[in-house]
Amino acid sequence: MAQFAVSFIFLSLTILEKASTGPEKDIVEFILADYGVTERPVKNKSDAVVVRVRLSLYQIMKLDIVEQSLTATYFHELNWVDEYLKWNPDDFEGVETVRVLKDQIWLPDINVLQRINWADVKSLEQALTNPIVEYNGRVTVQEPLYLVSGCSVNVKYFPVDSHVCQMNVGSYTYRPWEVDVAPAKYANGTSNFVTNMEWKLVNYTMHYREGVEPTGNFSEIVFRLRLTRRPWFMLLNTVMPTSFTGCLTVINFLMPCESGEKMGYGITLFLALCVNLLAISSMLPQTGEELPVIQKFLAVWIAMVAFSLFSTMLVLRIYHTEPSNKVPNLLRKLVRKPERFIKDGRNKKVSKNPNLLVLPGITCDTARNGDSTTDETGLNESLILLAKAIGQLGEPQRKTDWMRLAESVDKIMAISYVLIFAASFIYLTVVLSTREKITITFD
């Protein structure tokens, strides 16, 4: 009797234990019994394990032009058939799917070959999801993918540039006859894509590729994103300030030499352009293959401002040359002819004789050793000297030939600067508006 009671209690505990655990634990124990995690899950070792890959784009976080890397989030899915993970649902209360830990089953070493952020793999992805195993042996691994991948950029047409970032997904160690890859359904989906404010997604394509390299054959799926920059922010912060600074340089030629600010104004504009060039250079990768058009444009304008500084220095040097020095014969054609007559307040003409002073009612001839002739008799010498002084104060300062030469040189330099400025600006506009389009070719 006691033996029967012990048997009854043991049977009851076994039934209660099975009822509390459920069929999923039994399935896991059943399929993982004598399971080898390092063995490819095919019974015929000549067969390849076909892993289907899905990499749906969710959001573009950043395209770093300087570091040449793309940061984005994806929905990543891998699925394959494991011939050792099968069961009959009728034997386990009709349960068709179970979850297992990643370290309990065989997993393919499929990843993005251009990946940079390897330190984030374990902490961000592997702790979030577990593989789903179906009764027919199909294993599905789904996980969010925060990916920083290398991207070869072309900044020739910055800031209206377009880039193609490529991601190769394949196995690191297996050959195609061991583990092959294939695109899954919606492999390059963008239905849940979040719009980026800086970059516009033109297209997101994928294709299967096989090849041979020195280490052996390989197979992979190539995903490619084509991104185009939304240019208005960069245009307003790079091209427009530079253009305005270049236009302000024209004022340097219009400024009179007597102001004393021509050199200081030109140096200020030169430094402003140099700072702008440094700011744009910090946004671009340090490459010598092909300089961006905007950098060539800025370099030309800096040379033009330096040219304006040189011309200003030359003009000031000519302007302040002593009148006693004669203008060379080769430069005399640039000197404007002086006005023959100077009008006084009553629009009366001054005599061609520089020794005559004309005042209302008074005509003084200073070429006779201080003697003077007037139309009124009895005028003393002090009145004549006073009339001479008043006449000189009212007469505008006469320009020397050197001053007129400086004005002519300044005008020639200004016209040259405006022509070069307009040509460079038109060239930049045409090049950026007719930039060559990137065509995606599959190897």
Structural features, described:
- The protein has 443 residues and is of the alpha+beta class.
- Helix content is 35%, strand content 23%.
- The protein has a six-stranded mixed sheet. A four-stranded antiparallel sheet has the order 4-7-10-9, with no helix packed on it.
- Helix 4 runs antiparallel to helix 8 and helix 6 runs antiparallel to helix 8 (401-433).
- The radius of gyration is 44 Å and the shape is rod-shaped.
- The model is unreliable at 15-20, 338-379, 392-396 and 438-443 (pLDDT under 50).
Uncertain residue segments:
15-20, 338-379, 392-396, 438-443
Radius of gyration: 44 Å
SSE order, one letter for each helix or strand: HHEEEEHEEEEEEHHHEEHH
> Which geometry do the CA atoms define?
rod-shaped
Helix content: 25-40%
Count of separate DSSP helical elements: 8
Q: Tell me the fraction of residues in β-strands, as a range.
A: 15-25%
Average pLDDT: 77
Distance between the termini: 81 Å
Biggest sheet statistics:
6 strands, mixed
> Strands of the largest sheet, in order across it?
3-5-6-2-1-8
Category by helix and strand content: alpha+beta
Total number of strands: 12
